[in-house]
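Invent a record, attention on tokens:
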Amino acid sequence: MGKYGYVDSHMEKAMPKSFSIAEARHDLAALVHQLDHKHLIELTRRGKTVAVLMSIREYNRLAAPARRFWEAYASFSKTADLRRLEIEPEVFSNVRDRSSGREVNW
């Protein structure tokens, strides 16, 4: 398999299926249908991965604007049971250095 397998909190471990470009050309509709259940399908030429088909859900996830850390943490803390994960809510209370930073001479 190729290098696109990954673990994501919203998905199970995904190992993409692999098809040659000739196979994909012959049965593109079936490959697109498989994307309902698989997030990625690799396309190969002479055994080497040259392209990837992905579900629209996966594309939208990857194309979404990046969130700032605090936005991501706030979203995570709303959906995760921090006590069950043994993460105390105060864990991030003293993480940020609130000093003015180093002095810069121009």
Notes: Confidence is low (pLDDT under 50) at residues 1-13. Residues 41 and 53 are 5 Å apart (CA to CA).
